[in-house]
Amino acid sequence: MSPAPSFRGHLWTYNPVRGSCLLLLLVMLNLLLCQGNPCPSCGPDVFATSLRSRTDLFIEVAWLSHDFHNRSTIMFQEFNETYAQGKLYHINAANSCHTNAFDFPEDRYKAHQLSNESITKWALVLLYSWNNPLYHLVTELQRTKELPETFVSNTEDIEDMSERLQAFLESHFKKIIAPAMKMIRNAPRVWSDVRYVKSSDEDRRHSELYNLFHCLRRDSHKVDMYFKILACRALKTC
Ligand SMILES: *[C@@H]1O[C@H](CO)[C@@H](O)[C@H](O)[C@H]1NC(C)=O
Ligand SMILES: *[C@@H]1O[C@H](CO)[C@@H](O)[C@H](O)[C@H]1NC(C)=O
Ligand SMILES: *[C@@H]1O[C@H](CO)[C@@H](O)[C@H](O)[C@H]1NC(C)=O
């Protein structure tokens, strides 16, 4: 069974028996915390923290997003060179990214016009959109061992980096988690092409893998761009 878009780090289970006690506890905690704080559940916004810790945080995460994009690019290039020569996989690739359903700011200029919150939200939406495909990609590559081991380990690393980028955004920009999840829930299209990755027809399978690697490279570039804009704003180097 295919899992719903997974939002790692959050447990969305609900136990109805313990639920009401938990709810009461949460209400009481909120009441306690509310005194003197207008937005208790929002947590500290990273843009409001001191420059020193902000600098370190953003330098580290900008490297991570750089590696995320670098690794996705290398994977795509390797797949293209090894499996796509003389094939027509590229013809539909750009049109078939599942994330095309969203109206992401495409280029640096457009992204620079946006608020910190919007950029952060777009980065999180993009990363969330890849949880499901990456999960299936890793599972299938591990299972079939059809591609060389480097593809398996690269995809695992990419999934891990994506999780760490999400964890960074979720812990420092708590306010945008709900809006980002809402966008994912209301998405007109979700990735549902796992059947092609599992297809017994090699050409169909490779074509879908080509699409995935191509779209991942493209989207990881956007994610990296958003993180770099956030970093240069935080470090005031824009
Ligand atoms: C990825 O990073 C390595 C090491 O920093 C670099 O040599 C390589 O050119 C990069 N590749 C791409 C596609 O960006
Ligand atoms: C795929 O590989 C071919 C041959 O090396 C190259 O000409 C082509 O530009 C590559 N495609 C992309 C999108 O990089
Ligand atoms: C984003 O955050 C930075 C760092 O605190 C701030 O200087 C800048 O004005 C903010 N920019 C926007 C567009 O909200």
UniProtKB/TrEMBL annotation:
Subcellular location: Secreted
Pfam families attached to this UniProt entry: Hormone_1 (PF00103)
Recorded superkingdom: Eukaryota
GO biological process: female pregnancy; mammary gland development; positive regulation of cell population proliferation; positive regulation of lactation; positive regulation of receptor signaling pathway via JAK-STAT; response to nutrient levels
Binding residues for Zn(2+): 66, 224
GO molecular function, one term: metal ion binding
Xref: PROSITE patterns: SOMATOTROPIN_2 (PS00338)
Gene Ontology CC annotations of this record: extracellular space
N-terminal signal peptide: 1-36
Family annotation (SUPFAM superfamilies): 4-helical cytokines
Swiss-Prot/TrEMBL keywords: Disulfide bond, Hormone, Metal-binding, Secreted, Signal, Zinc
PANTHER family registered for this protein in UniProt: PROLACTIN (PTHR11417:SF5), SOMATOTROPIN,PROLACTIN (PTHR11417)
Protein family membership: Belongs to the somatotropin/prolactin family.
Protein name as annotated: Chorionic somatomammotropin hormone 2-like
Name of the gene this protein is made from: LOC108638107
